[in-house]
Amino acid sequence: MPAREIAVKNPFKKGQFQPYTAPLYLGRYQARHKCPYSFNCNPYLGCLHKCKYCFSDHIQTAKHTRFDYVRPADIEKMESHIINGIKGKQHDKISKCLQMRIPIKIGAMTDPFQPAEKEFKITLRLLELLNRQKYPVIVNTKGSLVAEEPYISLLASMPSVVQISLMSMNDDLISRLEPYVPSPKDRIKIISKLSEAGIVTQLRAAPIIPMVNEDISDVVSAAYLAGAKDVLFHILFMKKNPYAFEKLSGALGFNYLKTLRNNKHWAFDGKGYSYSMSDYQKYIDSVKPIVARTGMGFYPENPPVPDNPWTSCCGVEKYTGFENNMSWVLMIRGRKIGNHTSFAEYIRGSGCPYVADFKRKWDSGVLDQVIPGIYFNPEDKTYSRMNALEFERMCENDSKASRRK
Question: What CATH number labels 19-326?
Answer without folding.
Answer: 3.20.20.70
